[in-house]
Amino acid sequence: MNHQDSVRGRRWPAAVGAALGGCALVAASTAPATAHGVGSGAGSARAARYVSLGDSYTSGPGIPRQVDAGCGRSDSNYPSIVAAEPNVASFTDVSCGGATTDEMWKPQGSNDAQLNALRKDTDLVTVQIGGNDVGFGSIIATCAGLGPQQPTSDPCRRHYASSGVDRLTLDIARTAPKVDRVLRAVHARAPHARVLVVGYPDLLPDDGSGCFPSVPFAARDFPYLRDTEKRLNTMLRLVAAWNRAEYVDTYGPTVGHDMCKAPADRWIEPLQPASPAAPAHPNAKGEEAMARAVLKVLDKRHGRG
Fold first, then answer.
1. Number of helical (H) and strand (E) elements in the chain, helices listed first
2. Omega before 213 cis (within 30°)?
3. What is the C-alpha separation between 238 and 183, in angstroms, rounded?
């Protein structure tokens, strides 16, 4: 371990604890790695080589057209939309449903270790990971199972805080060094790439209201789960800044289109989807919204948006 890693190791508990404890974030401004232009109207910059890493929120399970059944990967997911920009010369999408940070280094079914897609001449990398490390799927199943038992209370929050400490907050803090390791590996394998860490979109009403029984969480668990997701995104933003990467906020642009909204208005499908998508995942509109958020960040480098 070099000195820089040692320093990081000492600072992580305090930095992440401060960020998650009050959902506040104070991150130093860092200069992202220099990369060739990508984004709408990127001018004369030469075409970029783009690699997408991530989990099911990236891959787009259930959204037509599925091009990798094993990973639930759609050719209408947000990386594919970003890759349609004229300044993208080559595109490799290795995102895979169910991926954790471990799958950055090891195969997942027929999907190779995701980091193996990177090359020294990769120009752009998007990374959306961490949700499965925290346990998105099991959290949703647990809260959906407890909600009908006490629909006006907060059985899910009490379940995760039964030891006196909120386990989900701890899990997010424990995921931070895992995401940190991923980003350091990305920079090592693609040293000239522009690296974007993509956050997770708004899954539940931002005002804390609920929609039981269509989404079967207890009334007071809706704000608890909303805040848990915000803590996850806060952690990702902090780790991105720490690693000379740019954070893409997909939560803000998707507020008002959560899984409680009417089918015509929602970009996140509920546990029983009405549009082609996995339960509690973005539909095609949600992937389009995340693509717009990524492109907005990319365009800012060129003084647009």
1. 10, 7
2. yes
3. 12
Enter the DSSP assignment of 227. Answer: H
Residue found under tokens 């082609």? 276
Average pLDDT over residues 154-173: 98
Asked if 218 and 146 touch (Cβ cutoff 8 Å), the reply is yes
**What was the pLDDT predicted at 8?**
46
Residue scoring higher pLDDT (189 or 4)? 189
* Chain-centroid distance, C-alpha 169: 17
Reported as a pLDDT band with limits 50, 70 and 90, residue 301 is low
172-188: average pLDDT = 98
Residue 171 CA to residue 175 CA, distance in Å, equals 6
Residue 9 pLDDT greater than 90, yes or no: no
What's at 22, amino acid-wise? G
Compute the radius of gyration of the chain from its Cα atoms: 19
Which sign does the torsion angle of CA 45, 51, 57, 62 carry? positive
Model pTM above 0.85: yes
Could you tell me the two tokens for 227? 């805040």
Identify the CA nearest to 132 among candidates 96, 101, 178, 166: 101
Report the alpha-carbon distance of residue 52 to residue 176 in Å, rounded.
20
- What are the tens digits of pLDDT across the range 114-154? 999 999 999 999 999 999 999 999 999 999 999 999 999 99
Question: For residues 38 and 297, what is the distance between their CA atoms, to the nearest angstrom?
Answer: 10
Residue type, 187: H
- The CA distance from 41 to 253, in Å, is 21
| DSSP conformation letters of 246-275 | EEE--HHHHTT-STTS-TTT-SB--SS-SS
Q: Show which residues are catalytic.
A: 56, 281
Listed in sequence order, the residues at least 6 apart from 257 whose beta carbon sits closer than 8 Å to its beta carbon are: 202, 265, 266, 267, 268, 285, 286, 289
Determine the pLDDT at residue 231: 98
Q: Are 298 and 41 in contact (CB under 8 A)?
A: no
pLDDT of residue 2: 42
